[in-house]
Amino acid sequence: MQGFALKWFICINYFTAKKLICRFVYFRFHYHNFLVLVNLLIFLVPLIPLPSNNSSFSFGIMH
């Protein structure tokens, strides 16, 4: 009975840890992608030639 309880406890902990690790990795992956996208936007926006009537719109996004 003791061995069964211990096995069950380890099993629950394993699945909980697995779920937490998966969630953490998923979050980290998406957060990293988000940062990369933001950096790309910051670097690319000044390079894109904008029409004069659209410059105020891009300025609004930057601030």
Secondary structure elements and pairings:
Layout: H1 2-44, H2 55-62
Structural class based on helices, strands and sheet pairing: mainly alpha
Could you estimate the helical fraction of the residues in percent? over 70%
Number of helices: 2
Order of helix and strand elements from N to C terminus: HH
Molecular shape = rod-shaped
How far apart, in Å, are the first and last alpha carbons?
A: 64 Å
Overall mean pLDDT stands at 75
For the largest beta-sheet, the strand count, sense and barrel status come to: none
- Tell me what portion of residues adopts beta-strand conformation: under 5%
Low-confidence stretches: none
Radius of gyration: 24 Å
Q: Tally the beta strands.
A: 0
Describe the structure.
This protein has 63 residues and is mainly alpha-helical. The protein has a domain at 22-63. Helices cover 81% and strands 0% of the residues.
